[in-house]
């Protein structure tokens, strides 16, 4: 008997308390994925129709620094989620995502999931609530990083 994707998704902390009926809908849009060290999972400015539930390894979120190459904004690890641009128009990646070591993840097709959210407003609400909290945490982490890097320039 083929295994479903539901148990591993449910084990991910992001979906741990999601109702089984919604978990099944998310699982229908998910597939296992693996990436080699240094491989890009996504590139800034390209269409964002997926997100990644990291199971093993890490993903560096990078932005281009003119004349200086890439600047790592944050590094995500097992249990984290990479990507919320799939949910917010215009659905474009706002950073690069590069594998740090070998990465195993669930790749969730955001276009598929958006369609399911349009049909089920409660699912859409549950996901929006979770991704809004994720976006808020990422903004806070970036703010702290900026204070650490640039706070000394103003004598703070």
Structural features, described:
Residues 1-5 have low confidence and may be disordered. The chain starts with 5 loop residues before the first helix and ends in a 6-residue tail after the last helix. Helix 3 crosses helix 4 (121-150). It is built from 4 helices and 6 strands; from the N terminus they run H-H-E-E-E-E-E-E-H-H. The protein has helices spanning 6-11, 20-27, 110-119, 121-150, and strands at residues 30-35, 40-42, 50-65, 69-76, 81-82, 96-109. It has a single domain, classed as Sandwich (Jelly Rolls). Strand 3 and strand 4 (69-76) form a beta hairpin. Strands 1, 2, 3, 4, 5 and 6 form a 6-stranded antiparallel beta sheet that branches. With 156 residues, it is an alpha+beta fold.
Average pLDDT across residues? 89
Q: Helix share of residues?
A: 25-40%
**Global outline:** globular
Number of strands: 6
Low-pLDDT parts are 1-5
CATH architecture: Sandwich
Range of strand content:
25-35%
Given helix and strand content, the structural type is alpha+beta
CATH C-level category:
Mainly Beta
Biggest sheet, in brief?
6 strands, antiparallel
Q: Going by CATH, what is the homologous superfamily?
A: Jelly Rolls
Give me the secondary-structure topology:
Blueprint (H helix, E strand, L loop, with lengths): L5 H6 L8 H8 L2 E6 L4 E3 L7 E16 L3 E8 L4 E2 L13 E14 H10 L1 H30 L6
Antiparallel strand pairs: 1-6, 2-6, 3-4, 3-5, 3-6
Helix pairs in contact: 3-4
List keywords for this structure.
disordered N terminus, alpha+beta, 6-stranded antiparallel β-sheet
């Amino acid at each position: 008997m083929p295994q479903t994707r539901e148990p591993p998704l449910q084990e991910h902390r992001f979906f741990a308390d999601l109702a089984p009926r919604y978990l099944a809908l998310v699982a229908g849009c998910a597939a296992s994925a693996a990436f080699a060290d240094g491989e890009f999972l996504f590139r800034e400015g390209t269409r964002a129709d997926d997100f990644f539930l990291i199971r093993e390894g890490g993903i560096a979120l990078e932005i281009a620094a003119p004349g200086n190459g890439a600047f790592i904004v944050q590094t995500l690890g097992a249990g984290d989620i990479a990507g919320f641009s799939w949910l917010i128009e215009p659905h474009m990646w706002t950073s690069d995502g590069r594998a740090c070591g070998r990465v195993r993840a669930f790749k969730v097709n955001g276009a598929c999931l958006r369609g399911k959210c349009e049909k089920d407003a409660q699912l859409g609400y549950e996901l929006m609530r979770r991704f809004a909290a994720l976006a808020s945490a990422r903004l806070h982490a970036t703010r702290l990083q900026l204070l650490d890097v640039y706070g000394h320039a103003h004598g703070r």
